[in-house]
Amino acid sequence: MQTIAGRRDLGADVADVLLTRGDGHVARTVAGNSSARLSESGFDKIADLATRDPRLAECVVARADIPPRHLRTLATLLPEPVRQRLAANNPQLAERIRAAVVQAAEGAARSVRNYSSAKETVAAMAKAGTLGDASVMEFAKAEQFEETVVALAALVRLPIAVSERLLLTESVDTLLIAAKSADLTWPTVKCLLMLRTASHLSPQDIEDARMSFIRLKPETAKQGIKFYKLRASQ
After folding, report:
1. For residue 80, is pLDDT > 80?
2. Residue 149 and residue 178 in contact, taking contact as beta carbons nearer than 8 Å
């Protein structure tokens, strides 16, 4: 696995398998392989591993293609000596890390969201029978985050805090399962993905998500969301 992880132009599908089956050495090799392509789920996996492996975190933040949300998370975990070393070796990277730390701090300050107004709006729509796929799409397209979260929570029957996680930190696959279980359509799901990632998905990521959503059977999604609800409640 170690040899494969270091191959030039390593494909995203192979990288995903390596990150799932390999150990820390393999993950660090993949992260340090600048020509390796990582899917969004691959970045989700490697970023999760990096939160428990400082050496891996250093490799991951150095990647030019790291999604901003993962950079913000991992940059705050880097010890100060590591940041200083990176600054000495790569001033441009050091500036990206500094900006990410600032953004993470600003995001934390805004993390306590007020859903009062959104709950009133969504409750009125539910009472009028107008809450559904079209309304979720409208909220997401208008970047009305709170309304989107509350509407999704109502349709999937999730606590608002759990619905919020779907749009902030959960994997794309989990969001697809939730959306399919609520009978949302692909155009609406695409809007959710764009809102969730602030448009940092590549066209290939979007297409991969579309195909996964099409292949996902409603009964499978409904079973999957049951397990997700159980895990989220623990």
Report:
1. no
2. no
Ramachandran assignment for 8, one of left (phi > 0), alpha (psi -120 to 50 degrees), beta (any other): beta
Q: What is the pLDDT of residues 178-188, one digit of tens each?
A: 999 999 999 99
Q: Is 179 left (phi over 0), alpha (psi -120 to 50) or beta?
A: alpha
Mapped onto helix, strand or coil, the DSSP state of residue 135 is helix
Q: How far apart are the first and last CA of the chain?
A: 35
Q: What pLDDT does residue 93 have?
A: 86
What is this structure's pTM? 0.55
Give, in order, the Cα–Cα distances in Å from 74 to each of 18, 46, 101: 21, 11, 9
Q: What share of the chain is helix, strand, coil (3-state, %, to 5)?
A: 75, 0, 25
pLDDT tens, residue by residue, 157-179:
999 988 988 888 777 889 999 99
CB 181 within 8 Å of CB 225: yes
61: closest CA among 84, 37, 81, 77? 77
Quote the CA–CA distance of 162 and 170 in Å, as a whole number: 10
CA distance 75 to 104: 9
The mean per-residue pLDDT over the stretch 184-203 comes to 82
Q: Determine the Cα–Cα distance for residues 195 and 210; give it in Å rounded to an integer.
A: 16
Query: How many angstroms separate the CA atoms of 152 and 167, rounded?
Result: 10
